[in-house]
Specification:
Blueprint (H helix, E strand, L loop, with lengths): L14 H7 L4 E9 L2 E8 L2 E6 L4 E8 L5 E2 L12 E4 L4 E6 L3 E8 L1 H12 L11 E4 L2 H11 L6 H22 L14 H13 L7 H7 L4 H12 L3 H19 L5 H7 L5 H12 L3 H9 L1
Antiparallel strand pairs: 1-2, 2-8, 3-7, 4-6, 4-8, 5-7, 6-9
Helix pairs in contact: 2-4, 3-4, 4-11, 6-7, 8-10, 8-11, 9-10
Length: 298
């Protein structure tokens, strides 16, 4: 990866990113990877940085240096190349930076974990909490992050590969490091059995129009009650969830049926037309379906 250039098309607006931007840290490169995932490469030295309850999670991997860096509340723990920190949303931390270091940041929000929590643990996003990790070395997390640093993020194909690696990281976070929140059982939302029924019906009807009224009927709830309960359980609106699932199906069909036209893909995903598919796919992933298909062929 070219470490001397910054991807100007990918200005990031996360709290941690902004805090570093206002410190002595230098941004070497950054990119939006699609699916709400953002990545940045930083250099810093002889600095102090504080993070105040960010609304997103941050994974930080030390690539070079860090031996003189520590958290003010954990001065005995020091950084080093290959060590990782997980800074969950809502945390508070004060960092003292020693000699020169380079590090990778992967930024993502709680809603990015929702599909993995439901699919891998059968839990709602609000039932999954990420712990603070300081200077640890879990190979299953470090390896894909290191692989990400070897890619040229200015290349759309490389960003697709980085997106895949980032999803690998999220899956490992959910299965290997997530915890149940300490505040007790979540209240409200959809009952587990109702939630499973709604998920199954959405998947079965993705090639058709799906309305909130229809989903509410599956759950035997009023539209208003269903919309509120769905958002409590899934961390997104019913419309946003269905649209995400349509794009995920499009990815699957692009892989399984390389000769299908975009119109056929759109029809099987419940999208109105090829142009609608292209527009929604680009918003979700950052690239067109055609570019995605080219990446699959490499």
């Amino acid at each position: 990866m070219n470490q001397s250039s910054t991807n100007s098309t990918a200005a990031l607006h996360t709290t941690v990113f902004q805090a570093l931007s206002q410190s002595r840290a230098s941004l070497l490169n950054s990119a939006k990877l699609g699916d709400g995932l953002e990545v940045a490469l930083w250099r810093n030295a002889n600095d102090e940085t504080q993070y105040h309850r960010p609304g997103h999670h941050t994974l930080s991997l030390y690539l070079r240096g860090g031996e003189g860096t520590f958290r003010a509340d954990q001065p005995a723990l020091r950084g080093a190349p290959g060590l990782l920190c997980l800074l969950p949303a809502g945390h508070e931390s004060h960092w003292v930076v020693g000699g020169e270091q380079r590090f990778l940041h992967l930024y993502f929000r709680a809603e990015q974990l929702a599909p993995w929590a439901l699919r891998l643990l059968d839990r709602e996003p609000r039932e999954v909490a990420l712990p603070e990790l300081t200077f640890v070395n879990p190979t299953a997390l470090v390896s894909p992050l290191l692989a990400m640093t070897q890619l040229n993020w200015n290349d759309p194909q490389a960003r697709l590969q980085a997106n895949s690696l980032a999803h690998e990281v999220l899956a490992e976070l959910i299965t290997g490091h997530s915890q149940r929140p300490r505040v007790g059982a979540a209240r409200g939302g959809l009952a587990p059995m109702v939630r499973r029924v709604v998920i199954e019906r959405i998947e079965a009807y993705l090639d058709q129009q799906i309305t909130v009224g229809q989903m509410a009927a599956w759950a035997t709830l009023s539209e208003h009650h269903f919309a509120l309960a769905f958002r409590q359980s899934f961390a997104v609106t019913p419309h946003a969830w269905v649209l995400t699932r349509r794009i995920e199906r499009a990815k699957t069909l692009l892989r399984q049926h390389p000769t299908w036209s975009l119109d056929a893909i759109a029809q099987n995903c419940g999208l109105a037309s090829a142009s609608h598919l292209v527009r929604r796919f680009r918003i979700q992933t950052g690239v067109s379906p055609g570019r995605w298909r080219m990446w699959l062929r490499r």
